[in-house]
Design a protein that fits this description.
binds NADP nicotinamide-adenine-dinucleotide phosphate; single chain; FAD/NAD(P)-binding domain; alpha/beta; 7 helices; five-stranded parallel sheet
Length: about 325
Amino acid sequence: MYDILIVGSGPAGLAAAIYGKRANLSVAVIEKNFGGVGQIGEGGHVYNYPGLPGIRGFELGMKFREHAAELSVEFIEQEMMSVKRVCGENGQAGKIVSGDDRTLPRYEIQLKDGSVRESLAVVYAAGTSPKKTGLPEEEKFIAKGISYCAICDGNFYRDKTVAVLGGGDTALDEALYLSSLCKKVYLIHRRNEFRGSRSTVSKVENQDNIELVLGETVSTITGEDRVDGLVLQSGRNIELQGIFVAYGSAPSTDPVKTIVQLDDYGYIKAGEDGKTMEAGTDKELPGFFAAGDVRTKHLRQVVTAVSDGANAATSAAEWISTI
Ligand code: NAP
């Protein structure tokens, strides 16, 4: 049994691992992707992380990971499927007991390979994942013309024609980035006003090879084995080779939604200390903490994610000391 199991190896999870280890606790990080660093690895440069202006997101993530590895944090490369809270037999009194004291209240995390890992506390830092279009053809064309990350996949579409779907900052940034690689970029947005920042909209409007398609949505994606075009709701056909979906992100809360309270948008309700509430009650869920983009918060950035990780691990250590 671990003291803390951390779910997610983005900035929040890795910061929690560093703080947990430095509090002399046994810590393991469960990560879906081998050697993961979270979503910062998929973006471009990070310009607002204090002290490291302009560092590549992946490089920053690797620095966090190397720091955790230096402290001998264990990594478990598995997808978490569900979690169960197991109440202890001897109440809450007592001291930290490392090892396998079955009387302690604990969490059991079920993994995709069928195994179960146990810990006294959980820091859930699974982040968010890209929203999908929901079109019936979408799944079949993922990695065959449909992508959710221009920085990751843009190079495959060098000198080709692509579309970016969405009107937020991500869509605008991706359209600009792709315009430097691709022959032509259609930016398709359902409204006539963009959600993204005015200054980026101006850059997009001034880019010759970006065509704005406003007040439109995609009704069908066409192609045999790969995407070869799309049809808009108005009936207009566009021939292209790639579609970049930039509809924002949704929190990855499926494995925990039965035990922890979520807000109306699916984020875990938690304050700065990471403490959560039990689903369907007005009680705290002891020993279960949320950190990073997955929790309710004002600003989702690397700097706030690492701060959350530190807070959640500290709350976890405090909780463990009361068991
Ligand atoms: P976002 O701001 O939520 O924008 C999502 C866009 O996708 C919106 O324009 C939305 O349309 C559209 N959309 C969502 N679902 C759709 C659907 N089913 N059909 C059609 N259109 C759909 O997400 P984001 O762009 O990823 O940005 C997230 C946050 O990160 C924002 O706060 C953003 O400012 C920030 N960010 C900042 C930067 C930067 O500063 N450089 C870069 C990237 C992201 P509507 O507008 O009609 O709702």
